């Protein structure tokens, strides 16, 4: 994660409705000593290969084209595409866990699952990768498909798949692609792995689970949550194992233990954050 200053003079003048939000963020920025800077490990890392100008909070806040959820567009829809393994209760449970985690991560927005679709239903172009020999789907076609599936109350729609993706013939693969202006994106778990781009799997695995303080501030102003409430929701997801009675979509499923081992470092970090916010 990237360190930022907690100096309030760096914050832009914002409407009074956001005053408490900004104060919460400023307090949270006391935690920046717990965030380490992202480091370059090789010339093939995304930062080296795709240098971009950093967007600070003020630039984000004053951007006239930025999208903000509102009362009529406050839902994130997840569209599963293709097979996610053998059909059955465990696969359905994993997808439901993903939905719950997204709802905690984007605290304050509703997250819903759309009915699953097969790859054939998308009518997308595809190819077989000459190196990996794996099937790959063209991301532009998937985004067009998602446009046709986007509900009227959606803030955005995100397609997820276990099939590899490619954005153009000259690229070997891509983890995902999005259209910010249209509120659409697609991501593949085929090569497994957030915020900043990645050029390879090892770089993806180094990415922190949560935002840097600047991006957290951006999300907070856009949605309007209290940081402590969001952290509590994330901790709850990591620590409370779901039972069938807790999920409206999984009431008839057998119970499977939630695989949260990989979240232990993040869980401890969140608890330290909450301790500071309680002071």
Automatic annotation (TrEMBL):
Keywords noted in UniProt: Hydrolase, Metal-binding, Metalloprotease, Protease, Zinc
InterPro entries: Archaemetzincin, MetalloPept_cat_dom_sf, Pept_M54_archaemetzincn
Matches recorded under PANTHER family: ARCHAEMETZINCIN-2 (PTHR32205:SF5), ARCHAEMETZINCIN-2-RELATED (PTHR32205)
Coiled-coil ranges from the UniProt annotation: none
Protein name per UniProt: Archaemetzincin-2
Gene Ontology terms, MF aspect: metal ion binding; metallopeptidase activity
Keyword Metal-binding: yes
Keyword Repressor in record: no
Cofactor(s) recorded in Swiss-Prot or TrEMBL: Zn(2+)
Family: Belongs to the peptidase M54 family.
Job of this protein: Probable zinc metalloprotease.
Record Gene3D superfamilies: Collagenase (Catalytic Domain)
UniProt cross-references to CDD domains, sorted A to Z: Peptidase_M54
Gene Ontology biological process terms, A to Z: proteolysis
